[in-house]
Design goal:
Layout (H helix, E strand, L loop, with lengths): L15 H14 L2 E7 L5 H9 L3 E5 L6 E10 L2 E7 L11 H10 L10 E7 L3 H13 L4 E6 L1 H6 L3 E2 L1 H8 L3 E3 L8 H12 L18 H10 L7 H10 L7 H13 L4 H23 E2 L9 H9 L4 H42 L4 H18 L2 H17 L1 H15 L7 H6 L4 H6 L7 H10 L9 H11 L4 E2 L3 E2 H24 L23 H35 L3 H17 L4 H14 L2 H13 L6 H9 L6 H12 L10 H6 L12 H13 L4 H11 L3 H25 L1
Parallel strand pairs: 1-4, 1-5, 5-6, 6-8
Antiparallel strand pairs: 2-3, 3-4, 7-9, 10-11
Helix pairs in contact: 4-11, 6-11, 8-9, 8-10, 13-14, 13-15, 13-21, 14-22, 14-27, 15-22, 19-21, 20-21, 20-29, 21-29, 22-27, 23-24, 25-26, 26-27, 29-31, 30-31
């Protein structure tokens, strides 16, 4: 039996003078680099946010599409440290791309990241599983600190942990923390400083006994790297994964020779290692952890899961949750949206009365302000939608959605892991497609990439809300449900249903045969972190206004130019014609002015472009202005709103009434006098935007993830064709 004395904490015997001089100078000279690691759902992101606050940035690890979250924290006045949040993993035997990122950093094989100290987060309510990863890092002989999270949940389960005893058994510092409530953070920072000054040393003995089968190979590898002083366990990983390490060809060949000479079998070594580690972990748990009788009553989370994950009621509850989500987007956002729309319409009217009738005033009112109104009017809905989604994630219900839908996903060629990228697609398809790297099965990953853009992203939300308000009456169903909210939910469900149908069909054409397994750890139910909800809402609104806003404003200004200028001869004929009409009929001056502006818009460059596209889109019920919007919104779907705002503002003229954009669109007429926006044309246009590939960024990221233009081309063709056919059917049925 391995005794605890093997792993006792060793303090470096330094004098107070040396402590206050040599070690502090070291901290000032070299900023510490701290890596946060741990199992998924161990609280790592919460601790990262608690340590870094707003001093963080997101990038990508070189060569892989894996998020690289870094930040800075202040350990003490004048002493700062860099924090890097590494992807979650269960052990040092990686399978996915994100696990390889963590693995290479811990094995010092990433040229861009060097960790001086590793802070491992361990879930106190599930300590046995977390200690496996912890024990592996200990045997790498790197400075490591255990941050013990979920202590409150462990207490609810009746689990008591002797943290001092656990620290003695492991031989490394153990600090209880609660990042959600900002508890234990200062204690953790203090321990980080002490480890940085080398007041703690890693245990001299390995966590488990050296494997007799690998002893000879390990010794020879350690001799190859005598200058690095590899630990036994590190040497085993050099033998197992040296092909993926940054080593010279000669060293690679020598390691291959060692493997052959000693008949090194990594699978057998790994199996033996895991058995030994869990045997040792069992001993540690017996000494330091008191667990309740397993026959005790289940926790509230488990009782709640009996209802929410019920094989019948669970699906009904899911539909109710989604229904309330989309109803709330309309209920809560209606008043601020109306206020913003009214403000901009009256601002434009006021400026028309004050400013001179020049090109620059027209640019300001009908180009800049009209484009800006098309951005800001939808900020309330975007904030509310993302706030509600964040609440679902924080409470733990989002993971239950993956669990509930796994059975359905498998019938169409996917599995439960495809659900999270698809749900993320409701926010934006670009990061959602990048998140498919967590799907190990190549066929399921490719299918998920191909259908994720069918999820209605936040960029479609402004288009939906504008068209729904335009053609769907504002009335209640059964006295309590908003008809507009029901239509909104229907559009989102249409995207989901079509995605499943496309996946079912495509699975027969993508001939990749791999077995897949879906293993999901369900987080416990928790109260949402309201500060996190608010920060997310503000961040998403800022991203929409800044990132999408720049595109919308630029395209709005370009559209103003295209809408305000055209071939000189045609425009001059229109001006001369209406000048004569106004002299002959001065009593119709206002009506003739509106007709003149509409005719000038039709003879502009934008009008010529739209009328050239009209024969193609006429069967769908669209006019030439909608055709222009379809072209411009390929840069970004939400540009549709800015395009409409610009086109209808330019067509309004200086003496136009201070109408809102919806009022101007509602009064739009075709050449035969019929309204442009009817129930048939509005529904057709909504369906087109549900199904069409109207985003260059999405195609670019699909090309990046699949490393081929073949799949983006297939995606663009099938989505555009599907959108055209379904919109045509809808218009012909409803007109």
């Amino acid at each position: 039996m391995i005794t605890a004395s093997w792993f006792c904490r060793i303090r470096k015997p330094v004098s107070p003078i040396r402590d206050n001089f040599a070690d502090h100078s070291r901290l000032k000279k070299d900023k510490l680099h701290i890596a946060l690691v741990g199992n998924p759902n161990s609280g790592k992101s919460s601790l990262f946010n608690a340590l870094t606050g707003l001093h963080q940035k997101v990038g990508n690890f070189p060569g892989v599409t894996v998020d690289k979250k870094t930040g800075m924290t202040e350990l003490a006045p004048g002493q700062s440290a860099n924090i890097i949040d590494l992807p979650g993993t269960y052990s040092l035997y990686p399978k996915r791309a994100d696990e390889w990122v963590t693995y290479k950093v811990l094995l010092n094989q990433d040229p861009t990241v060097h960790a001086d100290i590793v802070v491992l987060l361990a879930d106190a309510s599930n300590l046995k599983r977390n200690l496996l990863f912890c024990s592996q890092i200990i045997d790498l002989k790197v400075p490591v600190i255990v941050a013990l999270t979920m202590m409150d949940l462990a207490a609810q389960k009746g689990i008591e942990i002797d943290t001092d005893g656990l620290e003695r058994e492991l031989g490394i510092p153990v600090v209880p923390v609660n990042p959600r409530k900002n508890r234990g953070i200062q204690a953790l920072k203090k321990v980080i400083q002490q480890v940085g000054r080398q007041l703690y040393q890693t245990p001299a003995r390995d966590f488990i006994a050296r494997s007799p089968q690998a002893a000879g190979a390990v010794m020879e590898v350690k001799k190859l790297f005598a200058d690095k002083e590899l630990s036994d366990y590190t040497a085993i990983h050099y033998l197992t994964n040296h092909e993926s390490f940054r080593l010279s060809p000669s060293i690679q060949e020598k390691i291959e020779q060692i493997e052959r000479a000693h008949a090194f079998n990594p699978t057998r070594i790994q199996a033996d290692e895991i058995l030994q580690r869990y045997s040792r972990i069992k001993q540690i748990m017996q000494h330091t952890v008191s667990e309740p009788d397993p026959l005790q009553k289940t926790l509230f989370s488990e009782r709640l899961d009996d209802v929410l994950l019920h094989r019948r009621w669970g699906y009904l509850i899911l539909l109710v949750v989604l229904f309330l989500l989309f109803q709330s987007v309309f209920w809560l956002a209606q008043f601020p949206m109306d206020g913003i729309d009214w403000t901009f319409s009256h601002l434009g009217a006021s400026l028309r009365g004050i400013l001179p009738d020049t090109w620059w005033s027209d640019l300001l009112i009908n180009g800049l302000i009209a484009g800006l109104s098309g951005i800001l009017v939808f900020v309330p809905q975007i904030m509310i939608l993302f706030g509600l989604i964040t609440i679902l994630e924080d409470t733990g219900y989002m993971a239950r959605i993956s669990f509930l839908t796994d059975k359905l996903m498998r019938k169409v060629g996917l599995n439960g892991k495809s659900v999270m990228p698809m749900i993320s697609g409701f926010a934006c398809a670009v990061p959602a497609i990048m998140s498919t790297r967590n799907i190990e099965n190549k066929k399921e990953r490719l299918l998920t990439i191909l259908i994720t853009p069918l999820m209605s992203c936040s960029a479609r939300l402004p288009v939906y809300t504008m068209l729904i308000a335009l053609v769907i009456p504002r009335r209640d169903v059964l006295g309590i449900f908003s008809l507009q909210g029901l239509i909104m939910m229907g559009l989102y469900l249409l995207g989901v249903v079509m995605a499943l149908i496309v996946s079912y069909v495509a699975k027969w054409f993508i001939r990749l045969k791999e077995k897949s397994f879906f293993i999901l750890e369900l987080p416990v139910y928790r109260a949402p972190r309201w500060n996190n909800v608010v920060v997310t809402m503000i961040t998403k609104a800022k991203i929409f206004v800044v990132d999408a806003g720049k595109v919308i404003i630029v395209i709005s200004l370009i559209l103003w130019a295209l809408s305000s200028f055209g071939p000189g001869g045609q425009r001059q004929q229109v001006k001369d014609q209406y000048a004569r009409e106004m002299r002959l009929h001065p009593e119709k001056l206002s009506a003739l002015e509106r007709q003149k502006q509409s005719a000038l818009l039709a003879t502009s460059y934008a009008g010529i472009l739209g009328k050239g596209l009209q024969p193609v889109i006429h069967p769908l019920g669209y006019d030439w202005k909608i055709g222009i919007a379809l072209i411009t919104s390929f840069a970004a779907r939400e540009v549709f709103v800015g395009t409409m705002a610009t086109l209808y503002s330019v067509g309004g003229g200086k003496d136009a009434d201070p109408q809102t954009l919806q009022e101007r669109m509602r009064s739009a007429r075709r050449d035969d006098g019929s309204p442009v926006y009817t129930l048939a044309s509005g529904v057709s246009l909504m369906i087109f935007y549900v199904l069409a590939m109207q985003c260059m960024s999405t195609l670019a990221v699909v090309r990046r993830e699949t490393r081929s233009w073949k799949w983006p081309a297939i995606q663009f063709v099938y989505m555009t064709g599907l959108a055209y056919i379904m919109s045509f059917i809808a218009y012909q049925l409803l007109k």
